[in-house]
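agent> step 3/5: call structure_predict on target 'DUF3786 domain-containing protein' (Blautia intestinalis).
agent> reason: downstream docking stage needs a structural representation; sequence fetched in step 2, passing through unchanged.
tool.input:
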Amino acid sequence: MKEEKVSNYIKLCDEWAEKFLRMDKAELMKKLPELKQEDGYLKIVHFGVPFGVRESDGKIERLDGKTEANATEMLNIYTLFGYVKEQAFFMDKWVPFADLRNARPFAPAYKTGVTDVFAETFSGHAEELRKAFMKLNGTELPQGDVGYQINAFACEPMRFYFWDRDEEFEAQGNILFDYSATDYNHVESAVSTAEMGVRRLAEVAGLPLKGKSFGMS
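tool.output (status=ok):
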């Protein structure tokens, strides 16, 4: 079942590659000034990792040479290109996922698959989390045992807060979005973007994910 699910995501990526070929690249770069057109790619950075969308066929490559781009990364990039609104702008209005436009129906799955995974993965590992944020050029925040702002994309900063476990409470995590997030991408992509953030932090920290992650791969 899982292989079938992954293959469906890959099929969706192939469909988005075709859509990308039909997009007006100059218009897209106006909406997303962070894009760079060079070496036959449109280049973009997602949670600290450089990616390139090939202009020849619309396929996405991870450009740091470490691993291939996974389905979550690719769909986050494709849907950003497909859903960004012409007048999207950073509002500096920070809200939890459930308070984004049209997000509430997805909130229970988001808690299970993202913030619970974030808390469980880094429970007892606050120092590893702090170092991971620093490696991703995060900006430290005053709230939480560990709190940092990092960029999902240059247009989409996110704030991660973590409280480690103690004698009374389990570890807890929270992630805030700028309210503009759904002007840049589909609300369901906010879920997979946050999921990718947690996965990237775990990858950088060298820790296995714990909990019921979505596991799109």
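agent> step 4/5: record observation. Residues 2-22 form the longest helix (21 residues).
agent> proceeding.
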